[in-house]
Amino acid sequence: MTTIQTEPTSATKTAREAPLQVEKPLLRRYHAARWDEPLIFQLDAEGHRGIAVPSSDESQLADTPENSFRRKDVPSLPQIGQSQVLRHYLRLSQETLGADLNVDIGQGTCTMKYSPKVNERFAGSGQSVDTHPLQDASTMQGTLQILHELESYLGEVSGMDAVSLQAGSGSAAIYGNVKVVQAYHEARGEGDVRDEIITTIFSHPSNAATAKTAGYKVITLYPDENGFPDLEALKSVTSERTAALFITNPEDTGIFNPRITEYVDAVHEVGGLCVYDQANANGLLGIARAREAGFDLCHFNLHKTFSTPHACGGPAAGAIGSSAQLAPFLPGRRVVKGANGYVWQVPDELATADIRPFHGVIPNLIRAYSWIRSLGAEGLRQVSEIAVLNNNYLLAEILKIDGISAPYAAGQHRVEQVRYSWSELTDETGIGSAQIGARMADYGMHYWTSHHPYIVPEPVTLEPTESYSKRELDEYIAALRNTAMEARVEPEVLQDAPHRSSIHTVDVDAMTDPDTWATSWRAYRRKYQGAEFALAPRWEPDGELPVRPRPPKAHHR
Amino acid sequence: MAQGTTPVHPYVPNSAPATKQAMLEAIGVESIDEFFNVIPEELRMKRPLDIPAALDAEAELQRHMNGLLSRNRPTTAALSFLGSGCYPHHVPAVCDEINQRAEFLTAYAGEPYEDHGKWQALFEYTSLMAELLEMDVVNVPTYDGYQAAATALRMAGRITNRRRVIVADTLAAGKRAKLETFLSGVLTIDFVAPRPETGRIHHDDVVELLGPDTAAVFLETPNMIGVIEADAAEIAEFAHRQGALLVCSTDPLSLGFTEPPARWGADIVCGDIQSLGLGLHFGGANGGFIATHDDERFVFEFPSRLFGLAPTRVEGELGFCDVAYERTSLAMREDGVEWVGTAAALWGITAGAYLALMGPHGMRTLGDTIAVRTREAMGALAEIPGLEVLHQRSAHWREFAVRFPGRKASQVNEALLARGIYGGADATTVFAAGSPDTAVYCTTELHTSNDINALANALKEILS
Q: Which ipTM was obtained for this model?
């Protein structure tokens, strides 16, 4: 009979010099998944199928008008079995570091908070997924009630009179606001005169870019030593040409501009409108609102403040809030409660064009609604209080790291995020923020710098939101501190970083010229493998058409 | 928990009193209120938000949400023939699984070092689309087909340096309005109407409008009443002869049936990827694609991000990078091309998985099935006295128009609804100039012959 030893023997006890270290340090010995996964085209195998679809007898088309349009060949897609497709994408997902896995506070301004799992059940429910936007309102009372109530909650949070849920993202909402501004001035016969929009360098680039796309001349204000533009600087550019001011508060520095009402008044004085980009609203829920500051329009990013997941860069959702005066210009349709339930309101004649198809990004509107209902009024305020507590805790601890600073408003508390600068460390070691970011990936942390241009030198923007525990914040701080230390003692480690990621440093310049770029597998085959494709008829420029000059190369980070 | 304080919410860990206290002490402040001192008194809210009390127990929240959603009657609990820009197609389970992966769902703007898998999945989406479209350059998705069409036309204006476009007036009302507003001040639009007898654009009508100032001709095929644009190749040829581009909006799923527009001369192809495994979502699931040939004049006019292959410092490793990032508003603010921001990336990844699952033969079979069902439904309805199936001699795919002489489509739909059928979209809700007696019916692989018979029988009853 065999005896199974269940107690450790004295021999194994003595073999270890120290007991097993169970507690982990804050700094992780992380390594990203590394599957070395081929491109999906390499999985192609003749005759394999990923899914079977309902078939029909295509000979029925023989004498129909359709017959002559039926293609003679099949699309040149790869043939792959179902589980092979699944396995391929799951490997790629493992090589992706979402907010569900990392302390995702390194993408400041983007409010990478927790997206509650329970909301996936509602957004993914067949009662929502399988509904059609044109089905009768009487068959959609649940979703219509959600939309109606979400409009009213966001109206209350902003203090604005009407809310449009149609925009598919923050930038789309900004564009929607630009068009409302334009329609308002046109309705007053001032459309041609008011051709300038003023914004600030610390507001999202889309404020400037959407205004320009809509035909405006853009005036961008720069900060003074307080971190926001001087009031006199604003006044010096307002005039009868001013269509609107698009401004964030706090801006990306996290500094609240206490004189915001005076800015709004200065623009109103010349007949311009004031539009509040509330990208950074997460620190202000139940604390301060657009209305009291006098804004005419505002927008929220529901994928930021209201928790809908960022989804690798969308789908997102934007909500526009407006004063009663501008409500008729809002895009899309509102839901109103009638005698027989919820119905779509007929848009006003003044309404601006739809920003997108139908009624908005419904799955995200459901998630945002559910998030608000889970928290209630007190919970929303708690979200902001703790987000601001977390931000100031992070600020206090990070300023203890040698080589990093928080430009502007020294000693002042910040609201939702802080744009820090590594310029002292860079001067000392030659290591810049981008290299620190690459190294942070080795510790399992996501790290961004800031929008371009880098007004704050060697920037990093951190936004802890309400979602992360103190221990998680301490982990991020420990990784930053360690990375700064490495920059001093072994800078070559950072120069080559990352070392423990799914891949190594990408040569971003090797394949980014017209002759070398490979924008698709097809382009790669043509340029690098000699593949030839049938010539199709296409437009050719006539000899006189000049090629526009290109700006110098730029990169994401 | 201290009396009178807000309970600790599971989403807000550091609201626990002990943690909060420790953090306040680390910062060196007495209370959270101190952080807000900088906000002037007159801007601060003096009362709680007027929002319903928290449903912080997940069980209670779920009960509330399920109660609301149960008041919807989804298309799966009825028999629906609605399409018109939001198309019912089967969503493979694998698409849902990939779309719901926590890593993809909650990632955002990471570099290849955090998010290598995301970059590869998006590169593969654009590459699979490139195969389907037979064009080398496809964008990381913009918001939707409306935006894709609007941007494609502005690209055409910039590429040709011309100020006028000709647009086939076969568009959804919302898309037409989007084009008008987005092109306003930059490009003038001449709309060309479809011929009433065929439901499609005739080349003579386009040629009449073409001139040396034409930047582009815009066609949508199949158009909003399901008609395949039969003159597309001739129109492209005429456009090219005048130095104008051909911009074509299409549903990528239709390319299982018809040839890709690049073959007959489209220079920019655009549209929505909703049909590629995204589902209906009450019209809230969209992604916009824009595709061109690999020509720098075109590439530098894309506002969206474009991903490309790149080497890394390790031999044999596959990397990805932005292509011509300096085009974008993220690099150049208002000096970039239009703007780029968060749009529809995960829908792109999902659509890529859909194309990988479908493969060449899945696409072909589905394309055929939809063509067969559409013609079958047209035939079945054409037999019914009191209605007229329009444009029967034109080729259709997935949709067709039905006229109810002397009746309103909305009244017919009301009667159908009473029988558990969501009838075709009332043309007045779909088109700017839609006639109240007309509806647009949609049939896909999800409809069986029995479904078509059930519709035909119901219409017979209603119209008799």
A: 0.98
